[in-house]
Task: inverse folding
């Protein structure tokens, strides 16, 4: 079989990227132009860019096995994403858009220079690790697809870094957003094509597949419908909502292309509709995995990348070449976005007189270096490193969300250094403890509970005695109210006998209690945060 299509299709793709690089190349650009495209990006381009940016190689590789195993149960996660972005669009985005500086962390810290450096440093560390690992995964997938070429994982990483650096460093965010349009549609259309190929390969006319689609277990499996499961719909929805607030309301990466739009209304529309776009992409790749369960029963047992294995088994040159473009598109949309988001953060804390291209190049060097370093780390960690590194942002998300909420509730007043440190360390150590518990629903609990210590800790440090008393009395009363509501919920479930949808087994009750307590603490603190006299004390750091 001829193999030239395998290389022709990626060559055409890279030629197109080269053309964009040539057209948009500029000698020098002001910061507003280089990092924010002059704030003239339209709604559709911003929307597609957000979806392309958040669709990494991890999405393409990890969602098909999720669909293979659990069907479409993750639809509840997608609904949480949409709800979370809507909250960000109406609550957080307006103040970030109106007061935006070079980075959102400089905006939140205001005139507190050291606070900006602490907050930016935490973000940079977590972002380089998480994006660098996604970069590494792309190299692994391409090496598996083109093993006969002999470049190895380091070779593919360097190739992607060179091409991503070429167009993004020369054209700035404008070039990144333009290439995101190509990469976004490649990701979506290839998902449709893969789903169609798998559907046409179904045996017996797809009778078994159709029967399973009509079965409710395809959407929410009964044996995974308790609070102790990651696939319990309320857990997924709540987790998606909170995580979306962190990724789209407190992360420079995705907010950068939203803040680059012409007006606040355009920014809000792009952000909220991107939830629908991301849902379409996620459901498409879940569907591909769900179809592979019936279309390719010969896949190796327990494979972690069934879609890659399926492409290799088919051995169709045109499909292999197109899938390679899909991997390149997913990887490079992650790389170029991380370059510019972290580049802006670097410049906000280092010498502002240095060109933005220099800081973006520094980010590319860090990302490439960590991706190459990941090869050695993965070989010596027996698989645990990947999970840890992919979840690195979860260790700072709780603190970032808390700081963002404080900034918004303070109506744009800069959050103090002490507040930022307390929120970041409180969220970090809570996440570490929860990860050690090994509970299957810890992703949701991490996102929710990591917010709490940051809020509680610095409030207790900065408030006078009577404010502390009011704080804990309100928290205790709210906790008691939630426990009563939880008891009523259990009685209602027993009376209605709904084992299929809400199966609260005795073993999972402590988890429900912890979740309720977390919500109670958060709700107990919000009334105090809205109090102007108390809140001004918290934000400004001027204790009585």
Result:
């Amino acid at each position: 079989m001829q193999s030239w299509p395998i290389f022709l299709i990626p060559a055409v793709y890279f030629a197109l990227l080269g053309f964009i690089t040539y057209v948009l190349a500029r000698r020098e650009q002001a910061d507003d132009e280089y990092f924010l495209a002059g704030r003239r990006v339209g709604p559709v381009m911003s929307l597609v860019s957000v979806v392309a940016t958040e669709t990494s190689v991890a999405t393409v590789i990890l969602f098909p096995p999720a669909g293979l195993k659990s069907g479409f149960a993750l639809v509840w996660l997608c609904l949480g994403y949409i709800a979370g972005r809507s909250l960000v669009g109406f609550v957080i985005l307006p103040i970030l858009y109106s007061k935006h500086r070079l980075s959102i962390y400089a905006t939140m810290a205001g005139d507190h220079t050291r606070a900006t450096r602490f907050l930016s440093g935490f973000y940079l560390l977590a972002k380089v690790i998480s994006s660098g690992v996604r970069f590494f995964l792309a190299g692994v997938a391409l090496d598996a697809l083109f093993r006969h070429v002999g470049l190895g994982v380091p070779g593919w990483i360097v190739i992607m870094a060179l091409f991503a650096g070429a167009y993004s460093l020369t054209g700035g965010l404008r070039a990144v957003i333009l290439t995101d349009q190509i990469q976004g549609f490649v990701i979506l259309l290839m998902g449709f094509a893969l789903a169609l190929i798998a559907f046409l390969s179904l045996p017996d006319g797809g009778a078994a597949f159709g029967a399973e689609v009509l079965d409710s277990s395809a959407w929410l499996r009964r044996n995974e419908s308790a609070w102790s499961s990651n696939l319990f719909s309320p857990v997924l929805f709540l987790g998606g909502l909170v995580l979306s607030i962190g990724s789209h309301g407190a992360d420079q990466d995705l907010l950068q292309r939203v803040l680059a739009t012409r007006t606040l209304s355009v920014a809000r529309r792009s952000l909220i509709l991107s939830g629908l776009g991301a849902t379409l992409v996620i459901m498409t790749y879940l569907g591909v995995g769900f179809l592979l369960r019936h279309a390719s029963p010969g896949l190796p047992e327990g494979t972690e990348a069934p879609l890659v294995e399926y492409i290799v088994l088919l051995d169709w040159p045109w499909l292999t070449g197109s899938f390679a473009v899909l991997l390149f598109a997913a990887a490079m949309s992650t790389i170029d976005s991380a370059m510019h988001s972290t580049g802006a953060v670097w410049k906000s804390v280092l010498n502002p007189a240095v060109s933005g291209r220099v800081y973006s190049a520094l980010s590319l060097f860090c990302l490439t270096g960590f991706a190459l370093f990941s090869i050695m780390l993965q070989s010596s960690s027996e698989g645990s490193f990947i999970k840890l590194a992919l979840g690195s942002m979860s260790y700072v998300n709780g603190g970032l969300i808390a700081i963002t909420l404080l900034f918004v509730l303070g109506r744009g007043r800069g959050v103090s250094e002490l507040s930022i440190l307390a929120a970041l360390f409180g969220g970090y150590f809570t996440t570490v403890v929860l990860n050690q518990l090994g509970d299957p629903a810890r992703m949701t609990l991490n996102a929710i509970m990591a917010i709490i210590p940051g809020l509680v800790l610095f409030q207790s440090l900065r408030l006078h005695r009577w404010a502390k008393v009011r704080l804990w009395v309100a928290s205790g009363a709210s906790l008691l109210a939630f426990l009563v509501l939880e008891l009523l919920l259990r009685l209602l479930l027993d009376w209605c006998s709904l084992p299929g949808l809400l199966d609260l087994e005795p073993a999972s009750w402590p988890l429900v209690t912890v979740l309720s307590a977390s919500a109670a603490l958060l709700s107990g603190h919000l009334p105090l945060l809205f109090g102007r006299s108390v809140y001004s004390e918290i934000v400004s750091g001027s204790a009585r």
